[in-house]
Amino acid sequence: MNEPVMTDMRSEYSKSLIQLGKENPNVVVLGADTTDSLKTSGFGKEFPNRFFNVGIAEANLVTTSAGLAVSGKIPFASTYAIFLPGRAVDQIRNNVAYPSPPGKKGLNVKFVVSHGGLSVGPDGGSHQQIEDIGIMRVIPNFRVFIPADTIAVSKLTSLMANEYGPFYMRMARSKTPLVHSDSQNFETGKAITLRDGSDCTIAACGITVRMALEAAESLQQEGISCRVLDMFSIKPIDNATLEKAARETGCIVTAEEHNIVGGMGSAVAESVSESYPVPIKRIGAQDMFGESARDKEIPLLLEKHGITSFNMVKQVKEVRSKKL
């Protein structure tokens, strides 16, 4: 594959928020003492009366967002993934997901976090949030997104603003390569088929999507045709596309920057087991924490947990041997 163009999700999120702020006066932005890092402070410079930094108080971040939503605003609340949901799951559940106005499910709050997964690197295992998919997807009424690149960040930020209800979107800390085109459409609950194939399917999300495409390219050189799905919508999951992939390719490998327990791979396995069971192999952290790694060492940390295109190639070959 060609050398990828590297882009920054946080910068794109900041630009998207400012554009939304110009289009809709009800959009407000909240932070928890990480507004410069997440670059949401740019919205505050444009719209100071619609920007709130609550300090190191994530529970307050959630409850203040809930109050603003009740008053008719569209709050986007952001901090690091380890702090949200890490420190405020009780408030998320009881103050945002549980209250439901007549005919609606949950409050209209959008949680967008950064520094998710093992690629946080230097912050160490205590701050590498690899449990958030599992936490957020089991809370009723929430929808969960993990974008693969900045195009997805922009499109999904706009989508969340225009769809009622609570959302959770997790961005990566490091710069990420583009995998989508500007013309790509994103729909809640709809996976994107980036590459067709007939021998196996790789379902990926976030930074592993590019790896999946690289793995499929390598497998093609060996005569193995591999389908690649961007499962950016973890909840709702795209049951129809997964069933089609299971029927047509006969086996699935999932890849994520998350614990395999309760993660995207679990969601895929649950879906396929009820529609068209096929052999599945899940790539991700194997029920263990990460560890500190300087920026240049992050690839080694991902390799330690098997989150590489090389391991995807290996697992595709292994799972194909189990096809009926």
UniProtKB/TrEMBL annotation:
Record Pfam families: Transket_pyr, Transketolase_C
SMART domains listed in its UniProt record: Transket_pyr
UniProt KW keywords: Thiamine pyrophosphate
InterPro entries: PDH/Transketolase, THDP-binding, Transketo_C/PFOR_II, Transketolase-like_Pyr-bd, Transketolase_C
Cofactor(s) the record lists: thiamine diphosphate
Gene Ontology annotations of biological process type: organic acid metabolic process; sulfur compound biosynthetic process
SUPFAM superfamilies: Thiamin diphosphate-binding fold (THDP-binding), TK C-terminal domain-like
Gene3D superfamilies registered for this protein in UniProt: 3.40.50.920, 3.40.50.970
Transketolase-like pyrimidine-binding domain boundaries: 7-178
This protein's record includes keyword Ribosomal protein: no
Family indicated by similarity: Belongs to the transketolase family.
Identification of the protein by name: Transketolase central region
Species this protein is from: Nitrosopumilus maritimus (strain SCM1)
